Amino acid sequence: MAHTCHAFECTKAVKPEMFMCHFHWLRVPQSLRKRIWALYRPGQCDDKNISAGYARTAKDAIIAVAKLDGKTVPENDPCLTLYDACIGTSTQPSMVAQVKLRFDAAKDAVFTEHAELLRKL
Ligand SMILES: [Zn+2]
């Protein structure tokens, strides 16, 4: 899967494990850079199983770098909204939480079905 720099309006291709191209990565404030490394999990960009903490930090980094570039990231930017979906809200749980809820519901359904079948035997 093609992976590009996460900086606003940057289309430079980078390795999946790289958050931004070299130029933009060096513009990320050091404290955020450290947090991104601490919260990063290999493969998370492909399976979209991104922790809320990482998503929040990534969002802050993108906004900080855009500011240094003299740009403003619109609230509805697809990259930011993707991170928002990973963070989730009280009414709209994160994608990871939603998958877990569906998995648990499916597990319960199978269990109920089996219990029903056993009762009929
Ligand atoms: Zn870049």
Helix content: 55-70%
Q: Tally the helices.
A: 6
Total beta-strand segments: 0
Summing up helix and strand content along with how strands pair, one would put the structural category as: mainly alpha
Question: How many separate structural domains?
Answer: 2
- What's the overall geometry? elongated
Order of helices and strands: HHHHHH
Q: Proportion of β residues? A: under 5%
Which oligomerization state do the chains in this entry correspond to?
Answer: single chain
- What is the rounded distance between the termini? 50 Å
User: Which molecules are bound besides the chains?
Assistant: zinc ion
**Spans with pLDDT under 50 lasting ≥5 residues?**
none
Whole-number mean pLDDT:
89
Computed over alpha carbons, the radius of gyration is 19 Å
Q: Give the biggest beta sheet.
A: none
State the main characteristics.
mainly alpha; 121 residues; 6 helices; binds zinc ion; 2 domains
Would you give an account of this structure?
- This protein folds into 2 domains: 1-87, no CATH class; 89-121.
- By secondary structure, it is mainly alpha-helical.
- The longest helix is centred in the last third of the chain and has 26 residues, at 95-120.
- The mean pLDDT is 89.
- The chain has helices at 22-25, 30-39, 44-47, 52-68, 78-87, 95-120.
- The chain is elongated.
- The relative contact order is 0.11.
- The protein contains 6 helices and no strands.
- It binds zinc ion (ZN).
- Zinc ion (ZN) is lined by residues 5, 7, 10, 12, 20-21, 23-24.
Short description:
This protein is mainly alpha-helical. The chain is 59% helix and 0% strand.
